[in-house]
Amino acid sequence: NNSIINTKSDCFLLDGVPGSGKTETYFETVRTCLDQGKQALILLPEIVLTPDWEKRFLKKFSFAPLVWNSEITKKKKKKIWLSALNGTAGVIVGARSALMIPILNLGLIIVDEEHEQAFKQEENVRYNARDMAIYRSTRSLAPIVLASATPSLETFYNAKSGKYIHLTLPNRATGATLPHIKLIDLITHPPEKGKWLSPLLVGEIENKLNNKEQSLLFLNRRGYAPLSICNSCGDKIKCINCDTWLVEHRSKNILVCHHCGYSRKFENVCKKCGVEGQIKACGPGVERIEEEIKQTFPMARLIVLSSDTMNNHKILNQTVEKIKNNKVDIVIGTQMIAKGHDFPNLKLVGIVDSDVGLSGGDLRASERTFQVLQQVSGRSGRHSNKEEDKGVVLIQTHDCKNPIIDAISKNNRNEFFDKELMSRQNANMPPFGRLASIILSSRLERKLEIFSSELLKSAPLFKNVKIFGPAPAPIYFLRGRFRKRFLIKSDKNVNIQDVILNWTRKINIPNHIKLTIDIDPFSFM
Predict the structure, then answer these.
(1) What is the pLDDT of residues 248-286, one digit of tens each?
(2) Which residues contact 24 (CB under 8 A, 6 or more apart)?
(3) 3-state DSSP call for residue 6?
(4) How many CB atoms neighbour CB 220 within 10 A?
(5) Does 18 sit behind a cis peptide bond, omega within 30 degrees of 0 on the bond before it?
(6) Reduced to 3 states, what is the DSSP secondary structure of residue 54?
């Protein structure tokens, strides 16, 4: 509050366990900002979080904030833009693009769920809205609050080293105890043949149904199955535009590419060998878990929360209200359900496949997995005040000794982060070093090869800068284009932007080549 009154661009990390009241806490700073006659900008990672958030805001302040996102009309955007410019807009809330709104008297910036990958713009101009918000805070002499139950490693390090002011909320606001977390070893307690839920998890769901309490099953895979394969010839059904598998969506009887959007009707005939009736679904998606639950608990009231089923605000709002009002027994959800929601009667969280993402092959794979698993675990028992009534989290895994799984089961976030930081420091990776990517793409594979070689030949020789590549991108063929990547690694004191600009300016880029620069990349695909 002093930072708002004294117009100081201090950066705060508001770090609290799930359900600790971070939103209510930063609402108090918004109140101070408004009392000072200043304007506040609040960034949320995804627009799906805004309906519930708006209700809480309205209850607290008795007026609605101006909501900015990609779904609002041009007329509404113009109105918000003008209100921000003339100072009449008190509070603006939106996704990352809201950061670009010119605000006359900016007094406070809040970045909620600051660790979220959604703050990174991955198309066209690439930027991290959280980092840009910190820069804007400095330029506007306005304090900034980064709020998260699972801060990004960079933010955690900056708070630990004293660069940011670290505020902690170690207890749940309701007085509820943190959930009891148990691991289910799928080697010792495997699911029945053709099923995906261990008998231990099924038994716990049954207990909750008998007690008229809610359960949430989390699996971060949309659709019915992530891979379809021909049993006759072994052909995996791939996208025509990408080096990726098509995902079966059985409810619509289609196969879909989750990268480019290509889809086609599912036909049980192999296009390679022509054999009929041999296409087999491999692995589970949320639709497959829904099918299993319907078979096991036919009387249970069931709902699936994913971007396929919750494709607009109205449906999402209605669904969230149904869950809150206890009109649903079992929720099956993707990452959409992992954050921001408070369901009072939810007492069990079952993580169907905690091993997904553990070996993502990039810098932040383990960090992201830890964050999403801890966030979804935090949905359980948020209003359980008695020890015997506290929430339960069951984590299905094939690798109980994995350090991420072990850290979650012990609820030991800081130990996990300290180990990750040590590993990053040893490798001179962010936050101790800097990374940047150059992504080259073309519809002409041979010409891409030639240009990649030319760019490598003109690569600069700088002290404390290493250039790796060109290497085929992990998804080499995407949306009809072939792709190659360079990775540039440097010490923290190197101006990596200047290095890349001086390098790429030396060479003429042909029209058929698209060159993209990504500073501090989040995706390495």
Answers:
(1) 998 899 999 989 999 999 988 888 888 888 899 888 899
(2) 56, 60, 173
(3) coil
(4) 22
(5) no
(6) helix
